Each structure stands twice: as structure tokens, then as C-alpha cells.
Amino acid sequence: AQSVSQHNHHVILSEAASLELGCNYSYGGTVNLFWYVQYPGQHLQLLLKYFSGDPLVKGIKGFEAEFIKSKFSFNLRKPSVQWSDTAEYFCAVSATGGATNKLIFGTGTLLAVQP
Amino acid sequence: DTAVSQTPKYLVTQMGNDKSIKCEQNLGHDTMYWYKQDSKKFLKIMFSYNNKELIINETVPNRFSPKSPDKAHLNLHINSLELGDSAVYFCASSQGNQPYNEQFFGPGTRLTVL
User: Nearest CA to A34 among A17, A54, A16, A48?
Assistant: First the structure.
């Protein structure tokens, strides 16, 4: 069965610090990978996604993520965080070739950026 | 314009009651989903409908019954509510039900069972 692990449950950074949030998945086949963000009191929004091609994908608001197949990882990065990046970040995976679009989510990482 | 909307936003009720949560999307999508987010923020899919047909039914108690009257709506009815049903329920939609189809989420409904 597929699973997603986010090892950082709570991250606190100062503004302008660099960010890297870890995401590892467990699945032997071809996967599609996503990062979603949930700002306080708001719904989930897609930050970026990887389906195929260049393993380094760029998303909205200066975020990027790198798919490393050998490590089953899809870590999220941002070179310089802002206070407005304070939110919960979720990594998710769905399996290519599956009959349905079932997203498996990680447990989330709460990022707090201090001004 | 709200793309995926849910009503109500908050729902507080007693154990044993029956309640419904409604979801509507105006994106013209053909696939809709219900997810449950527990107190630890863990999100898990419950159901998915494609063109009004049930295509995903995770091991959810049969007290939960989704209903899709048309492609734009997916409602969730819960019978005999239990304390463990307290959670935030998110509706989502996508055009197509393939793994690469982006899902758009609603604002969530926070259900509290007393």
C-alpha cells in the first residue's frame, strides 16, 4: 500500500531563512507527487506537482520541489521564506496506472515563520 | 466566485444524531471527493464519485452515505453520529479521475460531536 511520510511535524524559521521540508513515499510503481498548502483558516491549495519529465518542479510563490526516485523523496524548498508562508504543508502521492485519482497524504508539516 | 463550496462551515451536534454536509462545485468538473481530516491534521480520502457514480469507497463505516444528485453536487450524510466522527471534512473536485488530474478543495466543514 502507498504511504507518505513527512518527518518534520513542526518547523519554526525566521524570515529570509531557507526552507526544506522532507517528504518520502512508499510505492514501487510510477507515482504522481504533489505539495499542497493550507493557510490558517483556509482550504488546501496546490503548490506544485510532478508527473514526469524534469525532476525539479517549480510552483507558485517561489516554491520548488525535487523528485529523487532513488530516494523515494519529493522535498519542498524555498530559498527565502516570508511571514506569509506560515501554513501547514502537505505532501501527497497518487499512483499512475491506478483506476482512480486517490490522493494519499502525509501527516503535514506546520511551518511558522517569525518576522 | 467560490469554486468548491461546502455548507455548513461549522456543525456542532449530539451523539446519535443524523446530519448532512453539502458540497457544490461550479468548475464543471465530473469527479468529486470527500476527505476527512482528523485532529492530528491527517487527511484521508473517504469517497469519490465520477459522473455521479461511486468509484472510491475507502473502509468507511456504513453510517456515512454519500449522495451525488448531479455532477456538481456531492453530499455526505452521517447517521448515528459518534464522538470519533469529530473532524474537518473536505470536499474536492477534479476534471477527470486520473492521478494527474488536479483536485480543488473546498473550505472544509468542522464537525464537532458532543
Answer: A48
